[in-house]
């Protein structure tokens, strides 16, 4: 049958079927699977025939999730992991070895930054950061031992956009494995494989779950690379639990409608506060004022659910503002049905120096708002009253 639309594939692709004629997939809470004979066991271990052996390798629920996400992300193969960081780590650790070098965009998720600067150097794997504003000079950062290019777009929390078409060609020209952390956009808004990404990695904890319930990660890409990562994962054990895989597979069915609303709400809130006298600026990829608005429109279906508001009055003002919020939650997550606010300079990015924060656009008064699925007028009202009371 011909390829269907995103919404349909995300709902209708379902590989796990028991013999009970259930309509919705059951949860396979089993650590291992039985063999009909000694010969069948031998063949499965030898990978001569397919089949489930042990849930550290694969489980019907994780297979179900992977098939859905591969179909909508446009990738050949994949694996699911216990968290987004397990996915980032396994993608790098499985494909690199001592002496290799990683080129990465500077604006990265905090723990990915720790992997590059504190974990991999212990094993002789080094890295260099490239600034997005200086992308024309990235070829000077490629070393003879550079094996991988790792990027995040839109970036967290600066909302900088990297040109995926350009970066896909750049990676190919320099023979680098291109890994894209696609967590902020989700496969619904952007499919990096289409632009040449070899690996697309996700924290499924964010928009894919979408309700702040479970941790999960995904690694998707070319079969040859995924086979190598699968070997690494089988024997190091970052496997997702059947329950979390089941939750995430159900969540995939509603991703499109949820993202439509997240994006609509974010655009409403960003447009409402743009130009507000209490704010230095409002940043959102689908506002015309975003420096890379045209690029965002080229590679993203909509602008995503995250906006940043930079308050006048620095850290003190930002903290007073947060303490006045009545509905919006202050918590270290994003991509939830509930709107969430974070102050990166004093929390997620507090370990960076002031200069490092400046370089990735994290000003003292910057607030990250993950726009939830509440009515946009209620989100606006809460932000407005907290702005008024924190003057
Ligand atoms: C949250 C996040 C991660 C890490 O995912 P976990 O599921 O928390 O391990 C990686 N990258 C980005 C962009 C994230 O937002």
Could you characterize what this model shows?
Keywords: Amino-acid biosynthesis, Methionine biosynthesis, Pyridoxal phosphate, Transferase. Its cofactor is pyridoxal 5'-phosphate. InterPro entries: Cys/Met-Metab_PyrdxlP-dep_enz, Cys_met_metab_PP, O-succ-hSer_sulfhydrylase, PyrdxlP-dep_Trfase, PyrdxlP-dep_Trfase_major, PyrdxlP-dep_Trfase_small. This protein is of the alpha/beta class and 391 residues long. The protein folds into two domains: 6-252, Type I PLP-dependent aspartate aminotransferase-like (Major domain) (Aspartate Aminotransferase, domain 2), CATH 3.40.640; 255-389, Aspartate Aminotransferase, domain 1, CATH 3.90.1150.10. Helix content is 38%, strand content 15%. It has helices spanning 6-12, 38-45, 60-73, 84-95, 110-119, 164-173, 186-189, 223-236, 242-252, 255-273, 293-299, 314-324, 354-359, 376-389, and strands at residues 77-81, 101-105, 126-130, 146-152, 177-181, 199-203, 217-221, 279-283, 306-311, 329-330, 340-342, 366-370. The strands form two sheets. The protein has a seven-stranded mixed sheet with strand order 1-7-6-5-4-2-3, sandwiched between helices. Helix 6 (164-173) links the parallel strand 4 and strand 5. The structure holds pyridoxal-5'-phosphate (PLP).
């Amino acid at each position: 049958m011909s390829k269907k639309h995103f919404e349909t594939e995300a709902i209708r692709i379902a590989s796990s079927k028991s013999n009970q004629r259930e309509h919705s997939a059951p949860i396979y809470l089993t650590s291992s699977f039985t063999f009909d004979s000694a010969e069948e066991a031998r063949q499965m271990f030898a990978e001569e025939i397919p089949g489930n052996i042990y849930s550290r390798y694969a489980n019907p629920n994780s297979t179900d999730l992977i098939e859905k996400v591969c179909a909508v992300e446009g990738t050949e193969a994949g694996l699911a992991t216990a968290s987004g960081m397990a996915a980032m780590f396994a993608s790098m650790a499985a494909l690199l070895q001592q002496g290799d070098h990683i080129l990465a965009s500077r604006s990265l998720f905090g723990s990915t930054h720790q992997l590059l600067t504190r974990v991999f150097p212990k094993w002789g794997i080094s890295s260099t950061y490239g600034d997005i504003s200086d992308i024309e000079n990235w070829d000077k950062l490629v070393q003879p031992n550079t094996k991988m290019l790792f990027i995040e777009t839109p970036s967290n929390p600066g909302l900088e956009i990297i040109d995926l078409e350009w970066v896909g060609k750049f990676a190919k020209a320099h023979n680098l494995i291109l890994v894209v952390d696609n967590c902020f956009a989700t496969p619904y808004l952007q499919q990096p494989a289409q632009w040449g990404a070899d690996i697309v990695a996700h924290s499924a904890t964010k928009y894919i779950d979408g309700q702040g319930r479970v941790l999960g990660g995904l690694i998707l890409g070319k079969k040859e690379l995924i086979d190598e990562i699968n070997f690494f994962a089988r024997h190091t054990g970052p496997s997702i639990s059947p329950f979390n895989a089941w939750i995430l597979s159900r969540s995939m069915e509603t991703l499109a409608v949820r993202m439509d609303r997240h994006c609509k709400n974010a655009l409403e809130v960003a447009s409402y506060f743009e130009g507000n006298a209490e704010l230095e600026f409002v940043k959102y990829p689908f506002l015309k004022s975003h420096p890379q608005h045209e690029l965002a429109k080229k590679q993203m279906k909509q602008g995503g659910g995250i906006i940043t508001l930079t308050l006048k009055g620095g850290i003190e003002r930002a903290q007073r503002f947060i303490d006045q919020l009545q509905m919006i939650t202050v918590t270290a997550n994003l991509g939830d049905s509930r709107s969430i606010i974070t102050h990166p300079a004093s929390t997620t990015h507090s370990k960076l120096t002031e200069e490092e924060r400046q370089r990735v656009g994290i000003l003292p008064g910057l607030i990250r708002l993950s726009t939830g699925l509440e009515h946009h007028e209620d989100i606006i009202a809460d932000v407005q009253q907290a702005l008024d009371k924190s003057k």
